Structures are given as structure tokens and as C-alpha cells.
Amino acid sequence: MQVHLMFFSYFSCKALLPLAKQTASNTLTASEFERFAAGDETELTAFFKQHFGYVTGWLIYREKCPPDQAREWYADAVLRVRLKAMQGEVSAGNLRAYLLKTAINFHKMEQRRESSLLKRHERFLEQLPPNAADEDFDQLIKEEETAGIDLKQQRNILVLQKALALLGDACRQLLTDTILHGIKVGQLVEKYGLKDARGVTAKKQDCKGQLQRLVHKVLQQLGWSADQISIPML
Amino acid sequence: MNHNDETQIQDYAAGLLSGSQKAEFERRLHAEPDLKAELDLYVAMTALDQQRLKQSLFNSLEPHEMQPLKPGISGKWIWGAAGLLVLILIGVWYTQLPHPPAQPATAQEIAFALIKEAYPPPVAAMGGNDASKANQQQAYLAYRNKRYTEAASLLKTLADQPGASDELIFYTGESCLQTGEWNAAISYFDKVGPGYWNDIAQWRMALALIQTGQKDAAKFLLQELQTGNKKNEVEKLLKTLQ
Fold it and tell me: Residue B81 falls within a domain, yes or no?
């Protein structure tokens, strides 16, 4: 009886252990979450890979979402969760559940999201040729109905894409963190290896200045004027 | 631009504003060119950043990682089932544990337990038809109500008188047995003559003898009772006395 019991326990544990491991690995450790919330792209990639099968599977099999859209909603949801983590609006815990809920919401709001400003910008970007920077930009501007966004917004994208490509990685990242992710300068001291919050503010101003000069330069190269775009001159 | 504006810009760009919130924000966009400019900057930069990140993320996926999984049992259920299984296993394991065998009871302990089951009280017709003496009635009543000290005291007086019945002598011995007067009990049981009360008196006397440590005398009596209606208890006691 004792021997049978040992075998039973052994095989039960053998069967449950991988499932338990899978469940345990669904949550980020404190340090992983800290890196994820700090915008670490390696951690983002790991997070993306970790939940891809689960969330897209749920969207496809439970929500009857077409596979291509499931992939897109999943990617959008991951970036949304990351943004919320960066802004300190979510804490370490069952991020997978939050991620799934976000992806399902995106799927349910498909129509509204598809017509959103961001999606229309993304669609415009998708329509651009891979080597758009080498093309004649005036040729890339389309009718508002075709592009889904107005002319100024199309120019914004083209100018910024070119200017950001000329900007250094550190500056691009710093401006992304502050402008896009709304992270306070105090939280970026360690990430950018700066002395203190003042150092981050100074660096941010410097990067903004660099981008501003690059935007001007791109505008000049294209023969466009500042009033042909609608972004503030930083 | 305050934090609320930043949040609204992000939600509006992502298409997450609806109803009156969306209408109000769009009214502000028309009225505030700076807000519109901030929105355009945000949305252009976000679209570029998202495109870059999405390309990088999808490129990072290995073919085997791109497989959507069929939703199965959730983690909560797995842990619940595992917990239940562990509890069952602990329960089964515990029942299989070699529990230390209980110490065999001594003859004295067995006898004491048997003594504590007092012999049933005499059947007495109460009232005018009962011809027995009043103090005998009182003694039996005390015995019936488990007031054994009172019963022993009353019965001793009656049993010591000449012509006392075997029944009365037996109940005197039994009352002494219940109050722990082992020698007095032995003495009264010994006085019970042959007949209906004799076997039961010998059985109760054997129990009293065991309590006083007179094992040989007890064994002798028990061997006499081996074929009687107390056969099982007698054998058990004899085995313990070996």
C-alpha cells in the first residue's frame, strides 16, 4: 500500500508540476516587473513571448476573433499594459489576467478602435514603402479619404520619422519615455545613468532641442514650411 | 499640459473615449490649438514607436512560439486540484502510519471497568403490595438511584441479621463493590448460598479479589465460571491473569 501510494504521489506530482510551473511563470518577479515598468525592451519581448499563445488562443477560440486580428489586438494590449505599468497604474501581480482583459476589450471595441486616430496613423505607416525615407515625400502624401488622416498629420509622421531616425538612440528613448509614456523625470535618473532629476530635465531639453533642429532640417530638405505640419515645434 | 490632459490624449488617440467624454474632448481640440498640436505630436510619435516595437516583437517570435493555445484549465483550478490532492495524500498516508499499539489493559483495569457496570437493581413492587421492610425498600431505592454508600449502609444492617435472603446479601456485596469496599464485598458475596444468586456473586467476588491482588483465588473462581454466561469476559480476564 505504501509503495502504491508513493508511486501515485510521484506520478501525480509529475503530472501537475509542469502545470504548476506554467502557472507560477505567469507572474513577473519583482525585479522583472521593475525592468518591464522601466521600459526595458528585453523584458517587454520576454513578456510578449510568454503570453502570446495563451492570449491569442483565448481570442481565437473563445472570442471567435480572426487569427490575424488576434495577433494585432494582442500586440496592442501588450503595449497598453506596458504603458500602464510605466505610468505606475498597474502593479506586479497577475498581469496575464489584466493583459487578457485588455486584449478582449480591444477585440470588443474593434470598430471604435479601428477608426481611432492612432490606428489610422498606424495604417498610414503600414502603407508606406519600406524605404520611405528615400522616396519623394510629396509622392507619399495621399488624399485624406485614402490615408484616413489629414494632410498635416501625414506630414507630421513623415517628418518625425525622418527626424527621429537622425536622432541618437538615447535621446529618442528619453523623449519616448517622457512624451509618450509620461514618465516623470525623477523616475528616469537611474535608467539613463544621470546624476539627479535636474540632470534628466537638462538632458530632456537638450534632446528636444536636437529633435527641433532635426525637424527644421527635414522641413528645409523637403521644401515644406512649419505651417504645413501640425506638431508643436517642441 | 496636466496629467489629466495627457491621459485624455492617450485614451482619445487609442479610441478609448466614448460618449460625452469623447464629445467634450473633441470640442476642446477645436477650441485649443495647443491641445490639438500635442495630440498630433503624441499620435505621430506613438504610431512610429508602436510600429517599431511591434515589428521587433513579432520578429522575436520563434515559429513554435506563434502557436495560439487552446484555453484549458486555469491556474486557479490547477492549484486547487493540487491542494486537494495533497490533502488526500496526507490523509491516506496518515491512516497507513504504523500507530503504536495500545498497551494491553491489566487484569485489574479490566476488572475495574466491569465493576463500574453495576448489577441492575432488584425489581421491587413499590407501594402497598410490597411486603418487604421499609428500610429494605429504602435501601433498594438508594441502589436504584446509584446512591451506593447509602444503599451499602442500609443493606449491611439487614444482611447481618439472621435469615437474610441471598438476594439481599448479594446487593449488599454489590453496594460495597460500587463504593470500593473490596474486602466487605468479598465477604458478602461469599455468604451467598447455592442457587440463582450464587453464580453472579462468584463472578462479582472474582472481580473484587482481583482488585485486592488475590489473583490465585480469583483465577480459581473464574475457572469455575468459564462455561457460564460470562464466558467471554471470564476468558479475557483469565488470559490477562496468566
Answer: no
